Amino acid sequence: MQTDALDEAGAEPPSRAASESSLSRLLGTLGLFSTDAPSLTVEEIAARLGVPKSTAYRYIQELSKVGLLVRLDRSITLGPRIIELDRCIRESDPVIRAAAPPMRELAEQTGLDVFLSKLYGHSIITVHTEFNDPLPHLRYGRGRPVPVSRGASAKALVAFLPAARLRRLHQELASESPDTLPWEAFYEEAQRIRREGYCRTSGELNVGKTGVSAPIFGRGRLVVASVTALGSDARLALFDAEAIAELVQRTAHMISVRLSADGHL
């Protein structure tokens, strides 16, 4: 019998499970950094990971070797390799490459800012933008997580998740926040968005801003992202509601077709 095979109960050998747990904690070190905590001490990293300081030292050393972290005196910060990876994402992500031209066209056609967002865990993250405003004063922009229950970009994506995944996501959200809508209301909102094919919200993430979003699909009609046209409430009021929704849906469809044609997803 192979020592690394699953046992009859389906459990993995302790050695593999321990290795994967250690790797998760190692990579989880990167998730400790944010705009609110751009630098941390070894002691802070150890405390937040719940590991001994010696283990935190080892994690920092390993991540520093590949440029993901940098040590400055007593402070630890994210390293230059992060910037290199970000550039790689911008230039090679198949969804971004398929989405950028149609997004640019929508932005030029409407004068609105256009966002491309993806699901990441329990958050939605904007991965590409086409701005018309040279100084967009947004609370949530590229690279900043958005709650999956707020904003058009999140709701338009989440609503088209497979039913089992949607239910599991709701259960996880409910266990984390008592403010989560009951399942019946959460599901009904998702069904409404699916019927309409888009989502429109105002002021849920950025005060005075209205967003109109539609889902983007990969192979097998699996939702992979959402595209959002965002502008001030006053500017969106100048558009016919159905007309702007149709433009955003058309853009989402064009991106989906480009993805399928290129065979990326």
Q: What's the SSE blueprint?
A:
Elements: H1 14-28, E1 39-40, H2 42-49, H3 53-65, E2 69-72, E3 75-78, H4 80-92, H5 94-110, E4 113-120, E5 123-130, E6 145-147, H6 152-158, H7 163-176, H8 183-196, E7 199-202, E8 209-217, E9 223-232, H9 233-236, H10 241-262
Antiparallel strand pairs: 1-3, 2-3, 4-5, 4-9, 5-6, 7-8, 8-9
Helix pairs in contact: 2-3, 5-10
Could you walk me through the main structural features you see in this protein, from its secondary elements to its overall organization?
The chain is an alpha+beta fold and 265 residues long. Helices cover 48% and strands 20% of the residues. The protein has ten helices and nine strands. It has helices at 14-28, 42-49, 53-65, 80-92, 94-110, 152-158, 163-176, 183-196, 233-236, 241-262, and strands spanning 39-40, 69-72, 75-78, 113-120, 123-130, 145-147, 199-202, 209-217, 223-232. The strands form two sheets. A six-stranded antiparallel beta sheet has the order 6-5-4-9-8-7, sandwiched between helices. Helix 2 packs across helix 3 and helix 5 runs antiparallel to helix 10 (241-262). The protein starts with 13 loop residues before the first helix and ends with a helix.
Termini gap: 38 Å
By DSSP (H or I, 4+ residues per run), the number of helices equals 10
Structural class: alpha+beta
- What is the N-to-C succession of helices and strands? HEHHEEHHEEEHHHEEEHH
Query: How do the strands of the widest beta sheet line up side by side?
Result: 6-5-4-9-8-7
- Gross morphology is globular
Beta-strand percentage range? 15-25%
* Main sheet makeup: 6 strands, antiparallel
Radius of gyration: 21 Å
Overall pLDDT level: 86
Low-confidence runs of at least 5 consecutive residues: 1-12
The total of beta strands comes to: 9
**Percentage of residues assigned to helices:** 40-55%
